[in-house]
Amino acid sequence: MSTVVPGQGAADIRKESDSMGQPEQSVLEVRNVTKTYQIGDEIAVKALDGVSLNVDKGELIAIIGPSGSGKSTLMHSIGLLDHPSTGEVLVGGIDVTEMDENELARVRNKEIGFVFQAFNLLARTSAIENVELPLIYAGVPATERKRRATEALERVGLGGRLQHNSSQLSGGQQQRVAIARALVTEPSIILADEPTGNLDSKSGVEVMAFLQELNRSGVTIVLVTHDAHVAKHAMRVVQIADGRIVQDYMNTPEERIDASLELKKLQAEKEASVEL
Ligand code: ADP
Ligand code: MG
Prior knowledge:
- By secondary structure, this protein is of the alpha/beta class.
- It contains 9 helices and 10 strands.
- It has one domain (about 25-275): Rossmann fold, CATH 3.40.50.
- The chain has a 6-stranded mixed sheet, with helices on both faces. A 4-stranded antiparallel sheet has the order 2-1-4-5.
- Helix 5 (about 140-155) crosses helix 6 (about 170-185) and helix 7 packs antiparallel against helix 9.
- Adenosine-5'-diphosphate binds near residues 45, 69 and 73.
């Protein structure tokens, strides 16, 4: 049940129209995207080689592949951070391929929340100020900014750390601030590139538990990982190699890992070792 030929998946059958984001439930779609990086005059690296992918509302997708396979390039294309060389990108059914930088930035700020491997928080800046930042760009007034940033931090369990700087937070906590920052604009999708890549295993499990919880509350999430264990937390796994999708399958309920159970297990093990 597990293979889909790239470019011939259900997405192509399902999506017949380009019309204005009618309730097709497609949050994001890329069609036949390629990306070639030119290095000097001689060398061209084909980082993406004809990728088509449709992300529906409510999905939790892991894009998995070895280092250099094109995962980050794909995420930058989906996230409107970089233009593909050829192909189309649709957000909520609307083709953004021809948009200029200003229009793209507007769509990006409204629809997409980013979580990066290296957290990318501002140093010497409090958690709440970091989370308020996208709201400043969106022109939200100060009082409402504070309220929404506080809510988002409470949602990731950091209501007691509003004034802490990045240097006063653990890696796991910093990543939770980054998740709060991604959430605060209520985007239609969260894109996370190796969100557990810089974390110890327990913090990694915590972050995955948050992402799963958010997804259960209706947030669409695409995460990128080179780690098969992390990918088992997703509903759907899209495997890429050499810039192409080679597999697109659902994790079975038995395969799928519930990070909150993993956390409980870690907690129980810790308590057992204390009792000894
Ligand atoms: P992954 O995230 O899966 O490790 P990337 O998308 O970062 O893969 O990279 C895919 C390929 O494109 C690699 O061969 C990489 O070296 C190349 N690449 C990525 N970014 C650039 C760039 N800015 N300039 C040139 N080559 C790049
Ligand atoms: Mg990468």
